[in-house]
Records
---
Amino acid sequence: MNGAESLVHTLLGAGVEVCFANPGTSEMHFVAALDRIPGMRCVLGLQENVVTGMADGYFRMSGKPAATLLHCGPGLANGLANLHNARRARSGMVNCVGDQATYHRPLDAQLTADTEGWAHGVSAWVRTSARAADVARDAAVAVQAARTSPGGIATLILPSDTCWDEAPDGPAPALPVPPAPEADPLAIRNAARALRERSDVLILLGGLALRAEPQALAWRIAQATGAKVMAEMSNGRVERGRGRLALERVPYPVDLAVEALKPYTTIILVNAKAPVGFFAYPGKPSRHHREDADILPLTRYEADPVQALAALAAELGAPEAAIPDPGPRPEIARGAPTPEGLARTLAALMPDHAVVADESVSFGRGFFKETHAAPPHDWLQITGGAIGCGIPLATGAAVGAGGRRVVNLQADGSGMYTLQGLWTQAREKLPVTTVVLSNRQYAILLGEYRGVGANPGRTAMDMLDLGNPDLDWVKLANGMGVEAAKTATLEGCADLMRQSFAQDGPFLIELEI
Amino acid sequence: MNGAESLVHTLLGAGVEVCFANPGTSEMHFVAALDRIPGMRCVLGLQENVVTGMADGYFRMSGKPAATLLHCGPGLANGLANLHNARRARSGMVNCVGDQATYHRPLDAQLTADTEGWAHGVSAWVRTSARAADVARDAAVAVQAARTSPGGIATLILPSDTCWDEAPDGPAPALPVPPAPEADPLAIRNAARALRERSDVLILLGGLALRAEPQALAWRIAQATGAKVMAEMSNGRVERGRGRLALERVPYPVDLAVEALKPYTTIILVNAKAPVGFFAYPGKPSRHHREDADILPLTRYEADPVQALAALAAELGAPEAAIPDPGPRPEIARGAPTPEGLARTLAALMPDHAVVADESVSFGRGFFKETHAAPPHDWLQITGGAIGCGIPLATGAAVGAGGRRVVNLQADGSGMYTLQGLWTQAREKLPVTTVVLSNRQYAILLGEYRGVGANPGRTAMDMLDLGNPDLDWVKLANGMGVEAAKTATLEGCADLMRQSFAQDGPFLIELEI
């Protein structure tokens, strides 16, 4: 057995079932091993940022780390932006990055690059295997790191000779995964005291606390104490819709965020951090809560929020509390697209247990409010601000969500970053409906530019406007084997959504806004 | 004047005329400064690897560094692969990377990343400006680094407050650029002695030594001494065609490279390094020259090869020597596409002083031999092996080459990495003819896979085959505003080339091979 075969056996033995891949020459022994050893589903992406974004989406929906297969330093580099988003979503995965043979690296051949250096900024764990005999054990540790709560990016760099040389010990057994830590009893008592004594407490949920069960516990606590509950601004996965809380997020614009947080002198953090601005702006605060607010961390991001919130509810003697009814399901909207109308149309039509992959950027900031009364669904956001996340995230989520329909709300400028992911949707016949919000500009930047205090002139517009020429998303999708259609009205969008939701496989709707 | 304005004035004053851009929020003050201060041509790319690849192509043709404008760490990360290629091509550019405000960075907001860490692996020079008053001086040093022979990647990271704060000293003057170093007289004498005493000497040219003038000097020396002249495997820019040497490159496959270098017991390196394999293979040598070969460096890559070769020719008393006639210009070929037929067709039709941007990968290895008798032209290769270089390189070369026709020979798998560059070609109406070599597979990898000793099974083909679904490059190009057509014959390709060469603007030919 060679090192590559020991790697594949070890990954399979540790429960890694899917490999998102864009291999190159130095990974051919790994590809050959995957070919010889049955059990791994291999999904090709045509650019590495698609590959890493798919692994992120897969983890968010399945809770299981996938492997990725990347080619040398530049292949890893191409995938860094979505690894950055995955790191912010606290997703787990095992990146297997091929590299020059150990004895070839000092010769500085063309593809030789700082593979380890690039990996560190996004990885919880990085190792370069030194010899074939180490690969299996290194892989077992990588999977352990990827599975450690809430999930971690493990990057295993494999010089090509560690793949083709003999691995005398064969595969390594899976290593135990440590349980998520429990909340500090003192943190629970502090939170309980604040909730008992104060009327202006915010319970801020993030990460794993945005699943249905911790939401229900937070609601019990809020009902018993008068506290409010809110979600962080950017979240990897929120369980929402009927039967879940009608949670609002901390707003993106500084002024709105400050306004939303002004009532609270106490913020209890549950797998969340104290709210800060996405960016700084001259003369505006970087921290968005009140300066005098007490910040009380109940749990860090790696903790089990169900255990912590249950303990807090018990400490408070908070009785069971029914999740409020969100009101009637919205009806589809008509006419020219508006954010509210599109959100209501989506809420009216989405299948039960749909998954929404949201990279709608500026157009989508109001989508949450209008979709509380939709059927139960999951909402995945861009978490690290590195645009080009939506299409790969939707693709990987479809692989990980066992046939559930995925709706990708996709800004056009961001979509162009990783449009190659559409091809994988066609190849794998994935149930993804992409709604491209086609405004032919970097709308968020035009807003920011005006915030700088000027109207854009010709040179600025040359960098902010995506018209001239207009992108034709129907042709782009068709060119990659994805059926597509264009519409400029919400009723047209509704018809196309119905059509897409009723059939298998991917479909793209270009919605001119 | 704010820091951003001091930056733009400094760049313009130092002769930077073009900015390839994909800005974000943290760069809005830079965009506003570019808008207010006339003089910079701003060219938008829809993904950062397009942006950095364009800057590479621009430098290769113009010899001048462009600025790039990139958004935070993830924006830089998206452009790293083509920065890696640019580094290997020894291209100069000034990357301006926006980042979080100095006081906001410690809060670890969503987009905060290891921007400096990612920059180091590809940059000759990296600096993060600490305050607005430093920006102009830092920018002047960055341009100096970018212009220092043969060219360097300078990365200037600009926290957003250094752009919006007041810069009391205004712009900084351009700094002097050190001249390219002259060759060591001892190296010249050593090379001359070897050339006088031995009959099996190879003069290996790389980098700046592949322009017409050093080629002619190398030819004089070869004619006087019986030495042979060859080019490195991967070259940023070779001046070729009628009036230039019919240079062959060191071959890519190990066995062919070893065979080609076997005759030489002495290799004189002119801006080149001793040949090593692109990758290592089990049981094959990493260095491709004879083990007993004497490696004599005449010049390092930063030196002036004209000075060095002229001194060597003088030392040898080598008389003037006419560049050999390459024979009659090839005629167009017909029928099913072959590498030789396509190369002859291109040689038959290319306009004088065309620029060829070659990312043909496996199909294109024989293109050189068939194009020696074409009119004078420049040939740009992928230099770092990071695929996805061709379309951006062609785009930037067209910006830098003053209206000359650029022909991009583009493998389909690699083209999909950065297809977004086609949109910039349409927007800027650039004279680029893209010939996509559509084989619907990662052909180079299929070859390498068979080298591993096996025929690919289903799982391997899932990662090596690009069919299912087939990419339609005509639709993809049309979707980005580029006119396009498909053909499966060389005469069809010739007709489309003629049509494209006769008109302004971009055109894409999908050649089914």
Note: The first strand of chain B starts at residue 18 and ends at 21.
---
Amino acid sequence: MRIELNEVASILKANDNYLILTHRNPDGDTLGSGFGLMHALRQMGKSAKVLCCDEIPAKYSYLYSDGDVGDVDGAYVIAVDVADEKLLGEGVYEKYSGKVKLCIDHHISNKEYAEKLYLRDCSAVCEIIYDLLVMLGIKKDAQIADCLYTGISTDTGCYKFSNVTARTHEITAKLMAIGANTVEINKLMFESKTRGYYMLESAALSTLEYYFDGMCAVMTITQKMLNDSGTKESDCDGISGIPRKIEGVLVGATLRERPDGTFKVSLRSHDPVDCSKICLKLGGGGHARAAGCELSVENIERDKQLLLDTIKEELDRDDRIYTAQ
Amino acid sequence: MRIELNEVASILKANDNYLILTHRNPDGDTLGSGFGLMHALRQMGKSAKVLCCDEIPAKYSYLYSDGDVGDVDGAYVIAVDVADEKLLGEGVYEKYSGKVKLCIDHHISNKEYAEKLYLRDCSAVCEIIYDLLVMLGIKKDAQIADCLYTGISTDTGCYKFSNVTARTHEITAKLMAIGANTVEINKLMFESKTRGYYMLESAALSTLEYYFDGMCAVMTITQKMLNDSGTKESDCDGISGIPRKIEGVLVGATLRERPDGTFKVSLRSHDPVDCSKICLKLGGGGHARAAGCELSVENIERDKQLLLDTIKEELDRDDRIYTAQ
């Protein structure tokens, strides 16, 4: 059942002993909104903890203290930034499926699995939590401001993505006035890359190839590059976005070699190219602007050609795209 | 002579026929504040043009129209975001040295060369222009909002740098509400790079050297790299930020070779290292977190060692930094 924000506030006042669930592979918004809400509930005299199926990356350690993370039996269960129960992840999904009483989310694709859902299409769940805390009369608190700034800044690519609104900046101004430690948080979230990351990026950039009058760029990351740079697969996330950033490119593909020699393909596109259509044809899937599929190991050259042909087909199909032909 | 913002407003009301000078190698803030001010002056019924010694990069073309750029004889001369007359650049410096009547700037290192100076230490001159336009009662205008958003977003690395304050976000919220086309501007400023840029980045990254237990990283861009990649000096701006982003690095230096063989040094630091102190000792200047100086051509190795020694001195000087010694 969809509810309004004042009903969320009433629920939080009426109950006690909260367990806040985040999604798996936790990011700044699920953690920022989870811990922000946890600190606020404690200020209200309630007990609250956060549970995540995965280990929380060390860079987020400023959001909480020892003892804030863990399971609580018989608690009132809230999920934040979790569009689908399955995203609660291994262990947490099995235990809490069908048991989430309240979900606070900003994904319009939310599966409405919770008993009550507050959904708003905005840049980050932390924007919603901010409004909620104002409604609840929570005292200004620098640690809560840190939590909410973390969610908003990370889910907007530090105010670069198209989900940013005037309200996003307004809330950020308030969080800074409260004392959010934005300099340190920005450093941790956006300005801190390993030496290995840049070794990998340098090598990957040197493989860039262009097709179809420069409308498609393909970058390759080999196992050798990963080994030489001492980086992990998670380090590739930022790099996959590069081919699309190149002037004139409508579809950017990153081919990432797996230890078994197969390749994971990450596609990114600009309007009007739909990556998910391309990837669906190749057995993968995803969103319009970001999707993925796999290339087999037996014949990588043949599979790469198939990928390029499928991309070409999609470019030709859309008569809003002016191709040379 | 230092003046207050209301005096700047009075001057703009009292005169007509303005020539607004930007600094050489124009960036988003000097152009955004220049054209933002130009559009506002025209709204006030005044004539105004912008002059820049260098060609304005094509990506900024949405800021102005044909005929907005050029020299005007007998005009009231204003400089925006120009800390030192010499930065007016070839041709403009020779003609307008000693003739700037009003300078609006945010560099605390401003040389006070203008007859009247309004100086405020804030993220971008565009923040000052915003306050000035409010004071002048300029009507809300989406193109002016585009200009001011451009300066603020680029001078803050899209809200990532430590120069961002609550006021920076407040002003941005207002600019978005007025209709600044932030999605398109962000794409142009931050998500649109040339093929050459990435060739240059790949080559530059491969030169990274580390000093002083990894607290200092040095990257070199040679004329050969610029030639091979077909990039211009202005393409280097984004790259200069990289060394500081590496984990553990407190001072990042980028050495950029000029056609004559001299090197321009861009320093970027994290708190508490003061780049401007390092650069001042070497005949340069700038801000605490971003500053610059020059290395001569006669003995680049000796000069580079001098730069490293000066950096080391600054690292050792501050007892908040734990060095291995």
Note: The mean pLDDT of chain A is 93.
